[in-house]
Specification:
There is one protein chain. With about 160 residues, the protein is α+β, with helices and mostly antiparallel strands. It contains four helices and ten strands, in the order αβββββαββαβββα. The chain has two domains: about 80 residues, Alpha-Beta Complex (Homing Intron 3 (I-Ppo) Encoded Endonuclease, Chain A), CATH 3.90.75.20; about 60 residues, AP2/ERF domain (GCC-box Binding Domain, 2-Layer Sandwich). The protein is about 25% helix and about 25% strand. Helix 1 packs across helix 2. The longest helix is centred in the C-terminal third of the chain and has 16 residues. The protein is elongated, with a radius of gyration of 20 Å.
Amino acid sequence: MKYSRRKYPTQNRLQELFTYCPSGQLVRGSTGHRTTAKGARHMRKVDGVFYYEHVLVFIYHHGFRPSVVDHKDRDTRDNTIGNLRASDVSLNSRNRTQKKNKTGVRGVYKEINPRFKNKYRVTIYAGKTIHLGNFATLEEATIAREKGEKEYYGEVYAR
């Protein structure tokens, strides 16, 4: 299977071949597509080469290919244009779910220092690790983290 990282089809070419459905899919009469193990359609064949469908949807609407196309709600099966945004690797990595954190909230940790027993420590990374404070409850810590995301990352990446 051929994958291309260099030359993507133009907006005009995509609009010749496909019709955009509100469900987020590019549709044409005879479809060539691949599916993931979970059955989500994510590859489209254009001129003999497979491309990620979300990138093609973005090009179809905006006419250019950014370095990364990010899914705002992190659902990779939702390729609606309202869910896609131009990004870069650094900003896209902030939109990932937390996998190793026991609290379930990125940047919020149960404090292990006995002096702050039963408190939550909140940090954020913006070029360096910034301590946002210690909080008595997980809810307070989560609110502080969200405020920190708005302040340091801007509205776009705040949850």
